[in-house]
Amino acid sequence: MSVEAAAAQFQTGTFQFRPIGNGLINDTFQVDYDNGVTLVLQRINAHSFPQPVHILRNYQRMERWLEDHPGKTRIPRLCRTINGKAWWEDATGRIWRATGWIPNSSSPHQPDSMLMTANAVREYALFIRAFHGIDLRSWDIVIPQFHNLMQRYRQFENAMENAPLFRLMKATHVIASLRERSHYLAFYEEMILHPSDYPDRLQHHDCKVNNLLFNSSHDAVLAVADLDTVMPGKFFSDLGDMVRTMACTVSEESSEWEKVGVNIDRYEKILSVFKDCLDDILTPSEKAHLHEAGRLVTYMQALRYTTDFLQKDIYYKTSFPEQNLHRAFNQLILLERLEEIG
């Protein structure tokens, strides 16, 4: 089923479309209709999200909460089809959804200033604060065990048992380095065993700069986007992803290993802004372990990239055969640099 068929479900009349973004999961398009309406149209990746309707139901829950608690954060408006539905299912069973286009907005790949870093962290922290108090029991879990480090490690071990020999050989160094770091599993288990010290909160779970919509001058955030993985989680998930993606000196896509490192000024800014925004919400245990967040998430991401490589690249999009292995090695180097910090 074509993009044209999906776009025709959300507005009438003629239109033009073009692919946008560089996400590794969903296919995203900007659709400009002749009636002046512009939408962001997405085909949800059914392999990554086996129950995509859960994403849309959670989105509706967020919209209802924000209607009752206005002004705390902004998310793109979920658009209805011409038949009044929140999504459209094509003849092959794939789910399409549309959100409102926010004019004069952009999503930079990396922060280009300390101000942008601070604004990005503040917006993600305010996103957590905005949903503080929401009933987590009714939430649809889009990806079960998404940031469960124990589960990610088990998947990694299972992938090794079933991987083709040539992929195992190529990943030998990365595998050994990941296995050496079992202490991260112990700390994660400590959090699970003490929920009052490490409570669940609604987390974004994908806190990259390019999942925020900035104004044209990049000095203010207009909206928090890419909300597919919004689920209950522990404090380290969002903070750790901000460290992993904003404090790094090069992108996770870089194979220039000697350039992979930590921008210490950005790192310290991320932790300080996050703590300041949520100081009255975070527990003493969480505040004492803020430095662990970046390490945990970077370790987890290295596990995930390695697992996907061993499983023949079934989750993340790739453009060359060993890209997921390169990504995993990049994250391991970043982890080593984070481990050198206090």
UniProtKB/TrEMBL annotation:
<feature type="domain" description="Aminoglycoside phosphotransferase">
    <location>
        <begin position="17"/>
        <end position="247"/>
    </location>
</feature>
<dbReference type="InterPro" id="IPR002575">
    <property type="entry name" value="Aminoglycoside_PTrfase"/>
</dbReference>
<dbReference type="InterPro" id="IPR011009">
    <property type="entry name" value="Kinase-like_dom_sf"/>
</dbReference>
<protein>
    <recommendedName>
        <fullName>Aminoglycoside phosphotransferase domain-containing protein</fullName>
    </recommendedName>
</protein>
<dbReference type="Pfam" id="PF01636">
    <property type="entry name" value="APH"/>
</dbReference>
